Amino acid sequence: EDSMIIRSPEPEVKILVDRDPIKTSFEEWARPGHFSRTIAKGPDTTTWIWNLHADAHDFDSHTNDLEEISRKVFSAHFGQLSIIFLWLSGMYFHGARFSNYEAWLSDPTHIGPSAQVVWPIVGQEILNGDVGGGFRGIQITSGFFQIWRASGITSELQLYCTAIGALIFAALMLLPVGSIITKLLQNWLGSKM
Fold first, then answer.
1. How many domains does one find in the chain?
2. I need a surface site. Which of 5, 34, 53, 63 has the fewest CB within 10 A?
3. 85 and 47, same structural domain?
4. What are 35-74's pLDDT values in tens digits?
């Protein structure tokens, strides 16, 4: 049976593919700062490093809205303060929990300050030395004990309270950051809708 099949002619299709739609090369990427004219001058001076870090924080180049710039600056400042208070809280807690601060206060000329005791794991306790007052640990020379004494802290309880206070301040610094970021997101999402 010879049946007659009618076929439409297949259109001739040409597919064009650009192999490199965005001009890129590893040579260009290897050049430091190829994306910025000031950074592209190269690492001849420390200005290059400052420009590298400053571009991310150059809010004026991101937008012209003064309110948005102010919000970003204050958000960055309060975030940084929160990190500083968190660090201080850890420092005070570590001093209250692991140091010989009260023993050092009783006789600072014969007892060395120590805020670190190495636990006996795999023979590492050999690092602990006699700092006086029946305490074995690593003697510190940072001056934290002197700073604490000069600021009026005379007990471990006061160190604990200061640690908790710094932790509370760290949380308080995050409140304005949250409200500022919420406002920025509302403005940004409002402009996208």
1. 2
2. 5
3. no
4. 666 666 666 667 666 766 666 667 666 677 777 778 888 8
What residue spans of the chain are helical by DSSP H? 26-30, 46-54, 59-62, 66-98, 101-106, 144-150, 156-192
* Identity of residue 159: L
**Which domain covers residue 23, as residue numbers?**
19-54
Sign for the CA dihedral angle at 22, 63, 77, 182 comes to: negative
- Domain identity same for 83 and 33: no
Q: Smallest Cα–Cα separation from 83: which of 180, 166, 184?
A: 166
**What is the CB neighbour count within 10 angstroms for residue 132?**
19
Reference 108, options 72, 144, 79; nearest CA is: 144
Q: Name the stretches of the chain with pLDDT < 50.
A: 193
Are 47 and 123 in the same domain? no
